[in-house]
Amino acid sequence: MIDYSADNATNKILRAHAQQAEAADRPAPESLAALRGEGVLALRTPRESGGAWADVSGVARCLTVLGRACPSTAWIAGTCATSKNLVAMSFPAAPVRDFFADPDALSCGSGLPAGRGERVADGVRVSGRWPNVSGCEDAAWAVLAVLVESAFSLAVIPVADLTVERTWHMAGMRGTGSHTLVAADLLVPAERVAAVEPFPLKDLLLYSITTLGPVVGAARGALDAIGEMFASDRKPFMSDYSRMGESPAARQWLAEATHLVSRAERTMFAVAREAETNGLSAADRPRLHVDLADAGRDCRAAVELMLDLHGASGFDTSNPLQRYWRDVAVGSRHPHLNPYLAVESFGAALVSHL
């Protein structure tokens, strides 16, 4: 059973190895072992295959807790949940039995149709290059979007059959190891390639929340760091205050940052609850997309306030605050959380109903 407390045993391991993950541009083996041991990698493994098949709120809660310790590792857990959901929803049970044989296996994937498939007598020959595949160096399986005779399809491929090119060198979310996967005329069994229809809104919201959860968690982690500063004997430099908490302005900044993070979290869980209802339609997507994008922006604004409170020392490479800042800055700009496109879609939807 997953422990959702902020300072659980898994988070202690993730926090202890966060810098190692950054330095290696991939998750620490100890952190992945901790995720596996606690059942995190089986969040969206179907129950009949030994997994939890957690609802959207459960996924959001788990990723937020993990992101508080190491946003990059939480991100990989989210990618794993997404790829397993894709397989469970897009393939009959029998052809992908091997995929779910180990319910706690790490899987990765890309919804970008960056490959092409050609049907042949004994399967589908797939070639392509998929960038930004989080956790691909450590995953057992990859779920990759391909165009097969112009049809959007998913291919389930063992990562051992693919080539990993280490192309992920980012300022934030460095530990996700979101490198490039390459297939060169790879024969994939026909039963592991399936044409898919447009994803239902509930699934789209799940995929967005797997990116937002680690970002909200990172903002919570930044608040933890600021809380430790307020509890210490640190004082505002060039002031007569003896402690940070004596400054009315510092207390206001802390309150505003906390409010923004709490609002982002509330927004995320409100969307998650809507995703679990049966009354949603495609017309709800623009509104919910704006909500999710706003939650990401709230996290960014909150961390900026925290850095103002901490001052230049918050950017010391040994200070976890700067890592949370970079992770929030990169993670909140994922296409699922794109604010200007969200507003554009929402505006178009509003005008269409006038």
TrEMBL record:
Record GO terms (molecular function): acyl-CoA dehydrogenase activity; flavin adenine dinucleotide binding; oxidoreductase activity, acting on paired donors, with incorporation or reduction of molecular oxygen, reduced flavin or flavoprotein as one donor, and incorporation of one atom of oxygen
Entries under Pfam families matching the protein: Acyl-CoA_dh_2
Keyword list, A-Z: Oxidoreductase
A cellular component annotation (GO) from this entry: cytoplasm
Ranges for domain Acyl-CoA dehydrogenase C-terminal: 213-338
InterPro entries, per the entry: Acyl-CoA_dehydrogenase, Acyl-CoA_DH_C, Acyl-CoA_Oxase/DH_mid-dom_sf, AcylCo_DH-like_C, AcylCoA_DH/ox_N_sf, AcylCoA_DH/oxidase_NM_dom_sf
GO biological process per UniProt: fatty acid beta-oxidation using acyl-CoA dehydrogenase
Protein name per the record: Acyl-CoA dehydrogenase
